[in-house]
Specification:
The chain is of the alpha+beta class. It is 42% helix and 26% strand. The protein folds into 4 domains: 2-113, Beta-Lactamase; 138-233, PAS domain (Beta-Lactamase), CATH 3.30.450.20; 243-389, Beta-Lactamase (2-Layer Sandwich); 405-562, 2-Layer Sandwich (Alpha-Beta Plaits).
Length: 563
């Protein structure tokens, strides 16, 4: 029995030596990877050249995973395998560990799988990169078959649909287009397309704007089999672009209107320019600017474009004065867009635009633009009102509301200078008789009433084209337009007759209030100066005053000289 045991140990020892020799100097010495014969507790019985460093690490118990595999094999668990990441040489080694029959040792063979590992990792990374890029660059990827049906849609679905809702259905069935408008479908394209905009119906029934890129698919014989591509939802981007474009247009139009207003110095010219620019900017057929007249409501200020039916103003008058928002009204002839004007929240006018019935009605953007412009027009209207007020203050007598001396003389001088358009006329000076006694006896308040009453008489006795003024104190003047000697006499007598009503202001019965008139005729085409005409009228008026008062005298000297 002892001989058999000894023979067995000898055979095992020989076998183990053969395996070690196979690794160190035999065929496994040329193995492209590490090869080692190892025993328990970190024993290395032999290794090939490539495995020398790892053998040393094994002896130093620095390869616990390999030690565990060896122990498992020597415990009868059968062959084992594992991957070792060799950080020193940046390699991945795939180890196989198997028992050496009849010996308390194991053979560990390694294979450098770094290339395979790197290729697999690169492939995984590439796939992930591709997936990430697809998800970033598009909302969904798709592929269609030869019938134009979806055969693949990315897992996220599209436009509110699940993937299963789309696969198998014709892609063009989801497209939205206007009647009669041709469009290129990327789902059945036979040529590569890039950035084509299409509209697809969403799951909720709305329409989405998509930017699609696609490539056709052909089989080996060149037969078209479908297409594949990407779609990106640009609905919100297009909506933002449209909103930005509208805002820019609105800003440009507003700037255009404001520039037209600012370029004019005179307020009336400013309003005229504003009316014309609003008409052009908003593409209307007519534009009208109204101002508020206290006690009368809206009154025409300026207009541009075609004349409007006065009935249109009557229809829009109440709505536009009551609402701070744009007013749109339609009738058989056209469409009105109106907006009230205000300054510091006080209504001071309105702007009205009109389009013919065969043109588009005013849309929300145009209404909004007019609302923005209305605030500026309200300021311009206020400036014009202030200018008119200053003009009135500078040209009228505060007590009577008649022209003052300067304004009267400026206007009359302008009329006399237009010789070719001139007409016969008469300058009439009017003076109150015995007015001093009114102030002395009955007080200045009664005297003021007398002056105001006289101004009313003169305004009532005037005709269109005439000028009426208070020159100062109790002196008044009239320019009687288109008046010859006989007409001047008739009108002077009519004034004197109406002036009899002033007796009620008399200071005493002995000195009744009355009128003295001096008239100087002016012939059409005469070269007489205003100063000369005034001297003549004043002269004959004082002749009446010193000749007994209460009557009139007409000077025709210059008129005769030019006749």
């Amino acid at each position: 029995m002892q001989d058999d045991a000894a023979n067995g140990e000898s055979m095992n020892s020989d076998q183990l030596e053969q395996v070690v020799a196979l690794v160190t100097s035999g065929s496994l010495a040329l193995h492209p990877g590490p090869a080692m014969v190892v025993g328990r507790n970190g024993t290395v019985l032999g290794s090939n050249l490539i495995g020398t460093r790892l053998a040393g690490d094994y002896r130093d118990h620095q390869l616990p995973a390999l030690s565990a595999m060896v122990d498992a094999v020597l415990s009868g668990a059968g062959p084992q395998s594992f991957k070792l990441e060799d950080e020193i040489v940046a390699a991945t080694i795939d180890f196989a560990v198997m028992p050496v029959d009849g010996c308390d040792a194991a053979l560990a063979l390694g294979r450098d799988v770094s290339l395979d590992h790197n290729l697999r990792t690169a492939l995984v990374d590439s796939r992930q990169r591709y997936k990430d890029l697809i998800e970033i660059s598009s909302d969904f990827a798709w592929e269609t078959g030869e019938l134009g049906q979806f055969v693949f849609v990315s897992a996220s679905g599209a436009l509110g649909y699940e993937t299963e809702d789309l696969v198998g259905r014709r892609a063009d069935g989801f497209m939205v287009s206007s009647d009669g408008v041709e469009f290129l479908s990327p789902f059945v394209t036979e040529e590569p397309v890039m950035g084509v905009e299409i509209r697809l119906r969403r799951a909720d029934g709305g329409a989405a704007i998509l930017e699609a890129s696609a490539a056709p698919l052909f089989d080996s014989e060149g037969v078209w089999k479908g297409a594949r591509g990407l779609c990106r939802d640009v609905t919100e981007a297009r909506r933002r672009d449209a909103a930005l474009a509208k805002a820019q247009d609105r800003e440009q139009l507003t700037a255009y209107i404001l520039a037209a207003i600012r370029d004019e110095v005179e307020p009336e010219n400013m309003l005229a320019a504003a009316t014309q620019s609003v008409l052009k900017a908003l593409d209307g057929d007519a534009a009208t600017l109204f101002r508020i007249v206290p006690g009368s409501g809206l009154a025409l200020s300026h207009s541009a474009g075609i004349p409007l039916d006065p009935g249109i103003l009557e229809q829009v008058h109440q709505p536009v004065t009551e609402s701070p928002h744009p007013v749109v009204m339609e009738n058989a002839e056209g469409t009105v867009l109106a907006h009230q004007l205000s300054y510091h929240k006080e209504l001071n006018g309105a702007v009205l635009l009109w389009r013919r019935a065969d043109r588009p009605i005013w849309d929300e953007d145009e209404q909004s633009l007019l609302g923005e412009v209305a605030s500026q027009l309200g300021i311009a209207m206020r400036q014009a009102e202030a200018h008119r007020h200053l003009h009135v203050l500078s040209t009228t007598d505060a007590m009577t509301g008649l022209l003052n001396r300067r304004a009267f003389q400026d206007e009359l001088s302008a009329r006399l200078s237009r010789a070719k358009d001139g007409r016969d006329g008469a300058l009439t000076y009017v003076d109150l008789d015995n007015f001093k006694q009114v102030n002395d006896v009955r007080g200045h308040q009664t005297g003021d009433k007398a002056l105001i009453h006289l101004s009313t008489i003169l305004k009532e006795q005037s005709r269109p084209g005439d000028l009426v003024a208070r020159l100062g104190g109790d002196e008044f003047a009239l320019w009687l337009e288109s008046t010859d000697r006989d007409q001047a006499a008739d009108r002077a007598e009519a004034i004197l007759e109406a002036g009899k009503a002033l007796k009620v202001y008399s200071g005493s019965p002995e000195k009744p209030v009355g009128l003295s008139l001096g008239l100087a005729l002016h012939a059409a085409g005469s070269q007489e100066t205003l100063e000369s005409l005034i001297r003549r009228a004043d002269k004959v008026m004082y002749e009446v005053k010193h000749g007994g008062k209460g009557w009139y005298r007409i000077d025709v000297q210059e008129a005769r000289a030019e006749s």
